[in-house]
Structures are given as structure tokens and as C-alpha cells.
Amino acid sequence: MAHPATPYRGIFPVVPTTFTERGELDLPSQKRALDFMIDAGVDGLAILANFSEQFSLSDQEREVLTRTALEHVAGRVPVIVTTSHYATRICAERSRCAQDMGAAMVMVMPPYHGATFRVPEAQIQAFYQQVSDAIDIPIMVQDAPASGTVLAPGFLARMAREIEHVSYFKMETAGAANKLRELIQLGGDAIEGPWDGEEAITLLADLHAGATGAMTGGGFPDGIRPILEAHRRGDMDGAFAHYQRWLPLINHENRQAGMLAAKALMKEGGVIACEAPRHPLPPMHPATRRELIDIARRLDPLVLRWGR
What we know:
Radius of gyration: 18 Å
Mean pLDDT: 97
Low-confidence stretches: none
Distance between the termini: 45 Å
């Protein structure tokens, strides 16, 4: 099934979840983060992802954040809602709820728990089938090392052909470009959205392999979007030049600062009030933060000016 008339593509960064110093949800900052990211030129947004610290949220908080984000965005851009859960029924219910609130797509990891609890391919396919049966919007399969689940390109392509709404795939595994290339070859038209992930650290290779979208960190979409646009135009020299310029910041986020990079940049630029993660996640090391801000200042992203 083809979903939108034009498949979703471009940059859909992960929205960080904003907390107060006491670890409570900070909804005013959350709304400002959404507004900043839209002003920075995103094609869409993703909420409740791992880089949103989704694993530290209660079910009630997830519902509050989903409703807050979708109502505040108010259709300005499409929003992907992460609905991952080990239990098929709960994931299906989360997905249906997200759709009813206005989600454009749901992103779902394969079922897993902890370091050792996994299920075989037949159960994974049944899991995605039941989630698909519960909704009418696309499902993005999140192929991430965090799940500890190997999703072979042939298996992913088969699910795309056999399960109505399984049509987008976010690759975060090692060798993502080759996996995307094989997935596209095996899945054909059933692959509506082969996407890059992992903070754009493999973006250029993934675009060369056929990726049409990227789910990056949320701190500097205005720096990453020109890479995708140049590549889409066939301007490979331009795409390389843009990527080369922003790669130090992309690398520092991916390899040093991690999921707290976007919030540190947003706090530095006055977008949000507090950059603290929720305990027990430790704060960013001060030296790592200084290096992050120093690299960003050399590039002058909107995030450092938006709230000033």
C-alpha cells in the first residue's frame, strides 16, 4: 500500500524530551524545541525515540508528550511517534493511540527485553502484522543495535511485501549503506522509505545507497538538510562539501556527546530552560560540552541564535 501521495522524505530529526532540574516534564521548553526545529527547516519530526530518552518515561508521560507535540505542531510538519514495546498488544494499542492523535507514522523496534530476551523471525513478523492490522498509517522498522536483534535484508523485504503498513526502514546498524542497498534491491516498490539513522554519521554513504530520508539528532537540522537537498539534485560535489563542513559536529554528537547534544545546544541558544537528562542518566561531561559548543560556534547553526 502506498501511503502519502509523495512518500515522506528528507530530514526528520529526533525531538529531545525536556525536563526540569527536578526531572519533571518541562512542557513550555518542549514546545519551544518543536518551534525551533520547525524554524530550522525540518521536513518532519520524530518523538519518543531512544534519543528522546523514551525509556525513562512513564506511560502517562508518553501520552502527555504525544498529545502536546501533535497539538502544538498542528500539522505544520508530519510527526513520527515511536511506539515500541515488547508486548504486541501494547505496541498495537500505543500505535493506534498515536494515529488517533494525529501521528503521520509510527516507529517500532522489534520486540526485545534487556540483554538476552529475543524472539524468532516468525514472532517478529506476527508482531509487526498485528501492529499493522491496528492502524492505517505507515510503520517504520527501527533496525538498531539496541534491540540486539538481527534483521536480515531479506526478512525486512519480505515483511514490506507481506505486511500492509510496514514500508519505512531506519538503518542504524554497522554497514548501513550496504544493508539499505540490498533492502532496496530485494524489496522494490514495497520499500517506500529507506532511511539513514544514527545522527547522520553514515549519511553520505547511505544517500549514495539510496536512502531518501534521515532521522538525525535535533540540534542542527539547518546544517544537515542542505546535504540531502544537494544530493537529491544530483549535486554530489555540493553534498560532499556540505557534509565535510558539518562532519566534525555530527561526529562529536555521535561519538562523544550522544543523546544529550541536542539539549546542550538548545540550552546554550536559549531554546530550552534546562538540558539535564532524567536520573540515572549522567549529565554530559563539562569538557565534552565545551568541545560541542566550540565546534558548533564555528558553524553558527540556528540553534545558538534562535532563542537570543
